[in-house]
TrEMBL record:
Cytochrome b561 bacterial/Ni-hydrogenase domain residues: 8-176
Protein family membership: Belongs to the cytochrome b561 family.
Co-factor requirement: heme b
Compartments in which it is found: Cell membrane
InterPro entries: Cyt_b561_bac/Ni-Hgenase, Cytochrome_b561_oxidase, Di-haem_cyt_TM
Name of the protein: Cytochrome b
PANTHER family: CYTOCHROME B561, CYTOCHROME B561 HOMOLOG 2
Residue ranges crossing the lipid bilayer per the database entry: 12-32, 47-69, 90-111, 145-166
Length: 176
């Protein structure tokens, strides 16, 4: 599988990117669960998979970050002005951090409330005693971070479209 080059993201980077993008899109549909108490197709079809998909996002993000760090020398230099390049890098770091913190805070809710953790029908952690501070941490972080992540993803996609249609600099084509 090809590594990243200065002209194009490699196969592994693109697989990680689009797999996580698809999973995050499915997770974002959970926001519709707030409509009519989840009594619609999103609430009945996707929400039961929310925890499993979150675990899968976490399992993909760990090697994705390792892969990104391994390939960071192959990325093209930041475009001028330098402040915009710094802002773009900070945005990517924030996205990666949120994509780690979202599933971790969700797991904190599950374990903190004593539910245990199962993904795709496999019990990963048995239910047990409640851990109030862990449930409190997860509950305080998960929902606000979800809204922030939605905003960051929309900003990320929006900037990709700006690069493609306004700047015409080939940034989007590198990931397609």
């Amino acid at each position: 599988m090809s590594r990243d080059t200065r002209d194009r993201y490699g196969t592994v980077s693109r697989l990680f990117h689009w797999a996580v993008a698809l999973l995050v899109f499915c997770q974002a549909l959970k926001l519709f669960d707030r409509i009519d108490d989840g009594e619609h197709w999103v609430g009945q079809t996707l929400v039961p998979w929310h925890v499993s998909i979150g675990v899968l996002v976490l399992l993909l993000m760990v090697p994705r970050i390792a892969w990104a760090l391994r390939n960071r020398g192959n990325r093209p230099p930041a475009p001028p002005p330098p402040a915009l390049g710094l802002l773009a890098r900070a945005g990517h770091v924030a996205l990666y951090a949120a994509l780690l913190l979202m599933p971790l805070s969700g797991i904190a809710i599950m374990l903190g409330n004593g539910y245990g953790l199962s993904a795709f029908g496999v019990e990963l952690v048995a239910g047990g005693a409640e851990i109030p501070w862990l449930a409190s941490f997860g509950g305080a972080v998960h929902s606000p971070l979800a809204w922030l992540l939605v905003a960051m993803v929309l900003g990320h996609a929006g900037m990709a479209l700006v690069h493609h249609f306004a700047k015409r600099d080939g940034v989007l084509r590198r990931m397609l």
